[in-house]
Design goal:
Length: 230
């Protein structure tokens, strides 16, 4: 397969909810940082043409050193992290190679994402503007105000959205330009494409693609890693 995907990893998160002063993407999972596991997984995918990490200055040097030690044939670039996640993604988009027609955006702290979203998923993009990893909700969801239940939402139509999120490059740029024009900030990149009328398709995710945010997530991640080594 052709290497034609730019991977953007916004890596500006902190480790506060993990009860750790170390940024969560640099916390060790076995003998490597969480983010190193994530990057190495991308390096195993033949469609990945380049990786751009958007991070703040305070972690740039350790992240750069970590990437240098990987000795990868895939170029890894760095962009300044922004005030919000969306700003970091845009910062990385500005230095992305324009010859690669697809951009994938992924959380630094999701090291067990489904690799086939960047292979099989590319075929699905022929009929869609974007493709996002997601899992159907298993819990009952209710909308409330001031702790009073207003309604129960139909679970059959609800999905928990993850990353990677894969887009046609031109569409992602249009979506971000529109968001900047309207001073709109979304919780993910898919919503930026949705609001300009683009069709976004779900790529069914696995239950291993956890976002390492809380101490319990780290325990689960260690279990997944141990199971993969067996």
């Amino acid at each position: 397969m052709t290497a034609n995907v730019t991977v953007i990893i916004p890596a500006g998160g902190r480790g506060d909810r993990l009860g750790n002063k170390t940024p969560k993407q640099l916390i060790l999972l076995d003998d490597r940082s969480v983010m190193e596991h994530t990057i190495r997984r991308f390096l195993e995918i033949e469609t990945v043409a380049e990786i751009i990490i958007a991070c703040h200055q305070d972690i740039l040097e350790p992240v750069r050193k970590m990437c240098t030690q990987m000795n990868s044939n895939v170029p890894i670039h760095f962009a300044p992290g922004g005030r919000e996640r969306q700003d970091s993604v845009w910062s990385a988009m500005l230095i992305a190679n324009p010859s690669f027609p697809y951009i994938a955006i992924h959380d630094a702290v999701r090291p067990f994402f489904p690799k086939n979203i960047l292979t099989d998923g590319l075929k699905m993009l022929q009929d869609s503007s974007g493709l996002i990893a997601a899992s159907p909700l298993v819990h009952t969801i209710k909308r409330a105000e001031n702790n009073i239940i207003l309604e129960t939402l139909p679970r059959q139509q609800l999905w928990e959205i993850h990353t990677p999120q894969l887009f046609h490059r031109k569409i992602l740029f249009r979506a971000h330009h529109a968001a900047q024009r309207d001073q709109f900030y979304g919780t993910d990149d898919a919503i930026l494409a949705e609001r300009i009328g683009e069709k976004i398709t779900i790529f069914p995710d696995t239950n291993e693609n956890i976002k390492i945010t809380y101490p319990a997530d780290l325990v689960l991640a260690k279990y997944f890693l141990k199971r993969k080594k067996q």
